[in-house]
Write a structure and sequence with these properties.
Layout lengths: L1 H14 L42 E2 L11 E5 L3 E2 L2 E2 L2 E7 L5 E5 L15 H8 L3 E4 L3 E4 L2 E4 L3 E3 L2 E4 L17 E6 L5 E8 L4 E4 L24 E2 L4 E5 L2 E4 L2 E2 L22 E7 L3 E7 L13 H10 L2 E6 L8 E3 L2 E2 L13 E5 L1
Antiparallel strand pairs: 1-2, 2-5, 3-4, 5-20, 6-24, 7-22, 7-24, 8-9, 10-11, 10-16, 12-13, 12-16, 13-14, 14-15, 17-18, 17-21, 19-20, 19-21, 22-23
């Protein structure tokens, strides 16, 4: 009976989609673009950064004013994974640094009147050295919705969306990615699902694909290894890129492909977050859509491989496209593809 009620509720929400507001905020994900062949790989920069784990990246920390000594900012070489690139990372040593979440409060999954905010607005309110956009979101029927998990000080502000459909007749129940920090300070990339009664995290995703009938709705025992969700800080998104030091990119299982997806196998602006084995938090953004001539962006697989090269052992993809933005001391790094910062449903901050 609860499953029937949830399907009806999801269908009602879907029927309101024609009333959604604002440019590209009317759906949690940007429309994928046609794949553009990658340009020839340009020559490597003359002077690589000194850090052994990012030996082809440039340390540009000093370009952004004064930062704590435990936060460094790097610019990518002119080519990443064989594609012309404009990308930046912030690397924060969690022995000293702290990360935090701002999100609209949509814990009831019924929408909120909380306003979306640009990364600059979040920076102005807190003077955070690093601010990046975070989870997926949308607006409908005069309310704002989060489609991605957000946990701050152990309080859940929003959940990963727990249904998906391409025709709003056949409903799927995908597990979606999250990066979480436990009370003990351990980090984990996992897949989560919110039922009507409980919230679970899993070591593997439910086996969904648009090409098959929906997998059964997740429970405490499906997928295997489920546990009740618990985290001090967490951010959701997807797909999950790296788990236990291994490449994942589970966009098929998380249903991020298809007509309503994020174009995971097309070149796009991207945002991602990961953590290394020695507790360095890495936030990543890359430019796309030719905001710089010849720079089309990256696929989610590209981002996973870049973060693996940087030493990440856990990582997830976040909202991309026109949402992608990273501020360092309030200054933009990449050229945002909307032409100006998009107001978003959540951000990650580091100090």
């Amino acid at each position: 009976m609860k499953t029937i009620i949830m399907i009806i509720a999801a269908a009602v929400l879907a029927m309101s989609c024609e009333d959604k507001q604002s440019v590209e905020q009317d759906w949690p994900w940007e429309d994928p673009e046609v794949e553009v062949p990658a340009p020839e790989e340009p020559e490597e920069p003359e002077k690589p950064a000194e850090d052994a784990t990012i030996d082809k990246w440039y340390d540009v920390t000093s370009d952004y004013g004064t930062l704590p000594e435990y936060i460094k900012v790097y610019k990518a070489p002119e080519s990443l994974v064989g594609k012309k690139a404009v990308a930046y990372i912030a690397v924060a040593d969690l022995a000293s640094a702290e990360w935090d979440i701002w999100s609209i409060n949509d814990a009831g999954m019924e929408g909120t009147t909380d306003a979306f905010k640009t990364p600059s607005t979040v920076y102005d309110e807190g003077n955070w050295p690093i601010v990046i956009n975070a989870g997926f979101f949308y607006a409908s029927g005069g309310k704002n919705y989060s489609s991605s998990l957000a946990v701050r000080n152990s309080e859940v502000l929003a959940y990963n969306i727990n249904y998906a459909s391409e025709d709003w007749v056949t409903m799927y129940y995908p597990t979606r990615a999250a990066l979480l920090e436990s009370e003990s300070g351990d980090f984990d990339a996992c897949w989560t699902y919110r039922t009507w009664d409980n919230h679970y995290m899993y070591p593997a995703p439910s086996e969904n694909t648009w090409e098959a009938k929906p997998a059964k709705q997740p429970t405490a025992s499906y997928p295997e290894g489920g546990e009740e969700f618990a985290a001090k800080t967490a951010i959701g998104g997807g797909p999950l890129l790296i788990d236990g030091g291994k490449f994942k990119d589970t966009y098929v299982e998380e249903l991020f492909n298809g007509g309503s997806g994020i174009g995971p196998d097309s070149n796009q602006p991207r945002t991602a977050i990961g953590v290394t084995a020695d507790k360095k938090l890495i936030t990543f953004v890359c430019e796309g859509r030719q905001m710089t001539e010849g720079v089309y962006g990256l696929t989610t697989a590209d981002v996973a491989n870049v973060l693996l090269d940087l030493g990440c052992v856990e990582a997830i993809n976040l909202d991309g496209g026109g949402s992608s933005c990273m501020l360092v001391n309030g200054k933009e790094t990449i050229k945002v593809s909307d032409g100006s910062q998009r107001a978003v449903g959540s951000t990650i901050m580091i100090k």
